Amino acid sequence: MMTSPTLEVRRLSLFRGRRRIYADLNLVLRRGVTTLLGPNGAGKTTLLNALLRPDRIRDGEVLLNGERITDGVSLKNYHSQLGHMPQDWRFFSGFSALESVEYVAWLKGLAPAAVPTAARAALSRVQLLDRAAMPVRSMSGGMRQRVGLAEALVNRPAIVLLDEPTVGLDPAQRASFRDALASEAKERAVLLSTHLTDDVRAIADRVLIVDRGAIVFDGTPTEMADLGGGKPTDASALEAGYLVAVSAAPAIHVR
Prior knowledge:
The chain is an alpha/beta fold and 255 residues long. It is 36% helix and 24% strand.
């Protein structure tokens, strides 16, 4: 069992052109699944991209396990502990599932001798080892997403950033993806951007809602449902809680 990872953001301000997306954002991520919700344009992807390249941040800082990047922790070391699956995840059409994950393992700097074992282990963790030789282009949408998750996990990262990974999947495919992710989140900090309250209900340990350049809600799914007047197993209560959070000003429930 790895030491509980901690990723901390301090006083982060981000801009899109001249428009300020975040102002003095503070955030701490620890082990488990944190779902990130917010209106379109609120800056969910912008935040994930900033966490991918903290060396490009001008206003604010990012710390891994209490050490600032890039002072106490080098960017190379940070990336060696990071997993990422972008919203527009793509694959090489001629690659098998194993070749695709092996290629990412190589890109992440794993020793050549360790690449095959690491790739197979990652596919096993997302229940795809029996399809290792299958071309990714021949897979269903849900299986492809699990290949993407295997790529994000192949280096056994402490921090995992996922951007809308369940978009376009049917309910069964989403369930398979979430099952694979839930097991992995026991040992790592996962930040999952989504607009689906089903993701919150099924997998979230913690919910962050961002709007108007700030975190307007930070709590559990139960606390989010309480805002909506229901139980966390009730999707309509979670949706109602979300609407309360983004309509309130200033922030109404922040730890």
